[in-house]
């Protein structure tokens, strides 16, 4: 079996950056979810994506991630005239984009953080 090459990992400034990216993907009809795992005593939340058309490559896999203490089954985002709101919740809410959080037992080997 061929070894899986690691993805490129990029740490974002805020959890809102990941929520915004996932919401965009959902609005374009693509499924999106947040991956969560604990590693070295910290909680990682991230989104796997493919950066297309990078020079001569067919696509570069990237893991965008945030380290934080938040918890929940969904990452919710809402943007209206009052601004942008992002929070974790154990349930969905009407009027919010709900992004499921998938908790992994351990960090996958192909993700380097």
Overview of this structure, please?
The protein is mostly beta strands. It has one domain. It is built from one helix and seven strands, in the order E-H-E-E-E-E-E-E. It has one helix spanning 15-27; strands at residues 8-11, 34-39, 42-51, 60-68, 74-80, 83-89, 97-103. The chain has a seven-stranded mixed sheet, covered by helices on one side. The two termini are 24 Å apart.
Write the layout of secondary structure elements.
Elements: E1 8-11, H1 15-27, E2 34-39, E3 42-51, E4 60-68, E5 74-80, E6 83-89, E7 97-103
Parallel strand pairs: 1-4, 2-7
Antiparallel strand pairs: 2-3, 3-4, 5-6, 5-7
Give short descriptive properties of this protein.
7-stranded mixed beta sheet; 44% strand; 1 helix; 113 residues
Structural class of the helix and strand makeup? mainly beta
Q: What is the first-to-last residue Cα distance?
A: 24 Å
Count of helical segments?
Answer: 1
Radius of gyration: 15 Å
Largest sheet: 7 strands, mixed
Strand content: 35-45%
Number of domains: 1
Mean pLDDT: 92
Q: Largest sheet, order of strands side by side?
A: 1-4-3-2-7-5-6
What is the count of β-strands?
7
Q: Any idea what the shape is?
A: globular
From N to C, what is the helix and strand string? EHEEEEEE
Helix content percent band? 10-25%
Model regions low in confidence, pLDDT < 50 over at least 5 residues: none
Short structural description:
The chain has one helix and seven strands.
């Amino acid at each position: 079996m061929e070894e899986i090459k690691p993805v490129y990992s990029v740490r974002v400034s805020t959890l809102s950056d990941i929520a915004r990216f996932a919401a965009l993907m959902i609005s374009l009809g693509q499924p999106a979810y947040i991956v969560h795992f604990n590693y070295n005593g910290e909680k990682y939340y991230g989104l796997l994506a493919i950066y297309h058309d990078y020079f001569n490559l067919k696509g570069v896999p990237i893991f965008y991630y945030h380290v934080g203490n938040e918890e929940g089954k969904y990452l919710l985002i809402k943007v209206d005239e009052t601004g942008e709101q992002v929070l974790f919740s154990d349930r969905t809410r009407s009027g919010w984009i709900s992004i499921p959080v998938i908790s992994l037992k351990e960090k996958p080997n192909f993700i380097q953080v």
